[in-house]
Write a structure and sequence with these properties.
The protein contains 21 helices and 18 strands. The protein has about 475 residues and is α/β, with parallel strands linked by helices.
């Protein structure tokens, strides 16, 4: 479904026109309410993904409407629109949890950026995270599944800690799904109807991270032309994920420690002590204990964060989970990319199994997406795995070793084992690969001659070469048919 934006503004012409220009109806649904009461009714009957709320409404104040909407669903990001540059009411709304505010006349570029970011936040809060030992029926991207012992331990840990209002540290290599685990904890907690925000500490410049988290006062530093409300104040009552917290500067770690101990902080350049009530979930791909021993991370903060730790295993250590993950993502991405791939060739699965996956689930998803874009036919073949380093190496070996001997007895010894299946098909495919390679070597890559020797059509030969994963370099002139 298209993202749904609700504009609550008594201006029936200028602002609605601007919003619809930035968010056209073919990809977005934009509804307009001209009074606060009408807006609240729309939220009750058909909750939007993001709300644009004018502070100056004819029937009640924007803050009153905001409070009514928060009572219905505090997860909906609300962006205020204000006429006055002082924006005292908008700042007050930010303190109460509003997502952001915009000035009239609206800067369409900023409108686009703020709303798209808010839509992403809304998606993260609302998309259910499915925990399953087996492949889930839905192709929801918010799925954590697998039946290996390490993953079963993860599910149990989420269940144990979700309902407890304590800090959680999630560890694991990049790409293992740490944010999904954080969202699962959030969705199963008592704060599930409150906001959830995720920040990557490594992605925000060091000089801006403190302001992003704690906010700043006007004039606190060069360029601070207005007060900014930080995420810990904005997300009061909700849950914050600090991803890659190991990259947080040491100077900022002391302020984080105080926040965890007392739930208080000051904005940058401010004297006012601000109280907040936020559940913190942190994640890291590094070893915080080792970093603290090297004095690159505060030991006292590490112990505060590690009240409860969940470790996500790397993909290479998840054993038989890989085939399940591959089939799940092929089904999901085939639908997204409008492909008709329904199965994986045993040779392709073998290649995927033999790779170490340093990028884990994220890398697997990328490799499979690229493979599906290359694919033709209903089966994923090794030839389509062009983004897999080991597949490229195999392809190079195949090209340089055309015609190597085919040992049927050796192949049978390798494949005949309990649980073997599709052996007839596998043996014939392997035999084809060596047989076709020998013929193509003999013809020096001339497909027209090879097809005549084999007694098959050139189109059939092309298909068999593709199915066998053979990349033949032609050294003779070919006709148009062979280039089609």
């Amino acid at each position: 479904m298209n993202p749904y934006l609700l504009l609550i503004d008594d201006d029936q012409f200028v602002v609605p026109t601007q919003v619809r220009q930035v968010f056209p109806q073919d990809t977005y649904r934009v509804e307009v309410a001209t009074t606060g009461a009408a807006g609240v009714t729309k939220v009750q009957t058909d909750p939007p993904d993001v709300i644009l709320l004018d502070l100056g409404l004819p029937d009640r104040s924007g803050l009153e409407v905001y409070e009514a909407i928060r009572a219905i669903d505090a997860r909906i990001p609300i962006i205020f629109i204000t006429m006055t540059k002082t924006a005292d009411l908008a700042i007050e709304a930010m303190k109460q949890g509003a997502y952001d505010y915009l000035y009239k006349p609206i800067d369409q570029q900023r409108l686009s950026r703020v709303v798209r970011d808010a839509l992403e936040v809304a998606k993260r809060m609302r998309m259910p995270v499915v925990l399953s030992e087996t492949q889930p029926e839905s192709e929801n991207e918010g799925a954590i599944f697998g039946g290996c012992e390490a993953m079963l331990d993860v599910y149990k840990a989420i269940g144990r800690v979700a309902g407890q209002d304590v800090t959680v540290l999630i560890t694991g290599e990049s790409g293992t799904g740490k944010e999904l685990v954080a969202r699962a904890i959030y969705q199963h907690s008592a704060r599930a109807r409150a906001p959830f925000l995720a920040l990557n500490c490594a992605a925000i410049p060091e000089n801006l991270l403190e302001s992003e988290l704690f906010g700043h006062e006007k004039g606190a530093f060069t360029g601070a032309d207005r007060r900014r409300i930080g995420k810990f104040e904005q997300c009061n009552g909700g849950t914050i994920l600090l991803d890659e917290i190991g990259d947080m500067p040491l100077a900022l770690q002391a302020k984080m420690l105080r926040l965890l101990q007392e739930q208080t902080f000051e904005r940058v350049g401010g004297q006012e002590t601000i109280r907040t009530n936020v559940r913190l979930i942190a994640s890291t791909h590094g070893d915080l204990k080792a970093r603290s021993a090297e004095e690159r991370f505060r030991a006292d903060l590490y112990y505060r964060l590690g009240v409860f730790t969940i470790h996500l295993p790397p993909l290479r250590d998840r054993g038989d989970d890989l085939p399940t993950l591959v089939r799940h993502y092929i089904k999901r991405f085939s639908r997204e990319l409008r492909r008709e791939v329904t199965d994986v060739a045993p040779e392709a699965l073998s290649l995927l199994r033999s790779y170490s996956w340093p990028g884990n689930i994220r890398e697997l998803q990328s490799v499979l997406k690229q493979a599906l874009l290359q694919a033709s036919g209903p089966v994923l073949l090794p030839a389509f795995l062009t983004a897999l380093p080991i597949a490229r190496n195999e392809e190079s070996r195949a090209d340089s070793n055309l015609g190597e001997g085919f040992n049927l007895d050796q192949l049978l010894r390798q494949r005949l084992e309990p649980g073997a299946s599709h052996l007839y098909e596998d043996i014939h495919r392997e035999m084809d690969r060596h047989f076709l390679a020998s013929v193509m070597k003999y013809t020096n890559g001339n497909r027209q001659l090879a097809a005549r020797i084999l007694g098959i059509a050139r189109q059939t030969l092309r298909l068999k070469l593709k199915e066998s994963g053979l990349n033949i370099t032609q050294s003779v002139e070919v006709d148009e048919d062979d280039l089609s």
